Amino acid sequence: MNTSIDAHGMAHESALQERAAVVVDGQPGTLVRVGDVIDARPMSRLQIGTVGLCMLVAVLDGFDTQAIGFLAPAISKSLGIALTQFGPVFTAGLLGLMAGAITLGPLADRFGRKKLLVLSTLGFGACAFLTAFAATLPELLLLRFLTGIGLGGAMPNVVALASEFSPRRHARVCVTLLFCGMPAGAVAGGLISAALLPVYGWHAVFYVGGALPAAVALVVLGWMPESVKYLIARGHDPAQVRQTMLRIAPGLHSRSITFVDAERQYSGIPVRHLFTEGRASKTVLLWIPYFMNLLVLYFIISWLPAVLVLNGHSVAFGIEGITAFSVGGIVGSLVQGWLMNRHGVAPVLLAEFLVYAVLVVMLAVLPMSEAVLIAATFGAGAAVQGAQAGLNSLAAELYPTSMRATGVGWALGVGRIGSVLGPAAGALMLLHHWDARHIFLAGVVPGLVAAGAVLIASFNKAAS
Major facilitator superfamily (MFS) profile domain: which residues (predicted)? Predict the structure, then answer.
C-alpha cells in the first residue's frame, strides 16, 4: 500500500535531472526539487506552525463532535424537541462530513489547499455560530448538515498540507499527530460545555464553537502559505514558489533557482485517476479499512457507555470507559507515526486491528474487574484511533500531489459511511434486545475485515 513511481513518473524525474541549467530572471539558474530542499533541512518555524494550525482544525472537529452530543439534552429541553428526535440531528452532521470530504477534497486539488481550508473552516464556524439561534428541528438538521460539510472539507486539506510541508522522514509523524487533535478536541468540548452550560446556557457553547474556527481561519489566511508542491503541480507563478521556499529555507539564493517537483502531474477529473495506472486495487484496499475502522470508532463512541451499563455497571463507569477510550486514542495517535516509520505501515496497522479484535473478545467473554475493563477500553482506543491516524497518513503518501486531497477526501468520505452505519448498527442491536456480550462480539467483525484488507494489500505489494 506504499506509493511507487510509475514508468511515466520515473521518466519525468530523469528528464528533470538531465537538464543542467535554465535562465531565471535573466540570470543563470539551476533546477532544484522542492522535496530535496525540504528533506535536507530541519523543520522551519513555518513548517512547524503550519502543522500546528492544521492540528488546531482537527481539535475543532473533535470539539464540535463532542459538544453537540453533550448539549443535546439542554437543547431538547429549551426548544421542546424530544430527545429521541436527535438521532437524525447527529446523522445529519455525519452525512455533511461525508459530502464535504468527497466534494471539497477534489476542489482543493483544483483551486488550492489553503483557499479551501479557509473557506471550509469559516463555513463550519459560521454554521456552528448560527446553531445557537436554531429554534426548530428542521433548522437544527440543516445547520448540522452544513457544519458537517465544512468539517468534511477541512480535513483532506489539513492532511495534504501537513504531508506536503513536512520532510519525508517526519511526514507520517506530522500527519498522525493531527489526529491527536480530534480526541483532544472531544475532551475540550466536554470540559467547555460543562463550564458554560450551567452559567450561560447551551447557546454560549455554539458562540465559542463559531468564534474559534473564525480566528483559526483568519490566521491561516494571513500567515500560512499555499503548498509549494501544489503550486508547482498547477503551474503557478514561480516567484510565489520562491517566496515560500525562502520562508522554509532562508539561506537559499532563490533568484538563481527554479524549483520543480519530480512527480508526474495529472489533469482532468482527479477522482478518475484514483483508479488508473495500478491505483484501483490500492484505493479499494485503502477504503475497506477506512470504512470498517470508522464504523468501529463511531459505534464505540456512541454505544460503549450504554453497553457497559447493560453489563451491570453504573452510568458514571460508562463515562469513565469512554474517557479511557478517548485518552487511549490520543496516545495511539501520538506514537503511530513513529511506529510506522520503525516497523512499516502494514505490520503496524495489522497488529492494531488484531489487538482491537482480541480486546473486544476479552471484553465479551471474560469476567473483568472495573480496573481491567478501563485498561481494555484504553487499549482499544489506542488501537482503533491510532489505526485511523495511520490510515490518514497512508492516504496522504499513496497519492501524488495533483490528486492528494481528492484521494484523502474520498477515503474519508467512504469512511464516513461507516461512521453513520456504526451507531445505527448499535441502535438496531439494542432494538432487538441483544445482550452486551453479543454486541461486543459483533464489533470484532469489522476489525477482522480491516485486518484482512491490510494483509491482502501487503501480499499485493510483495508480489509486485
Answer: 50-462
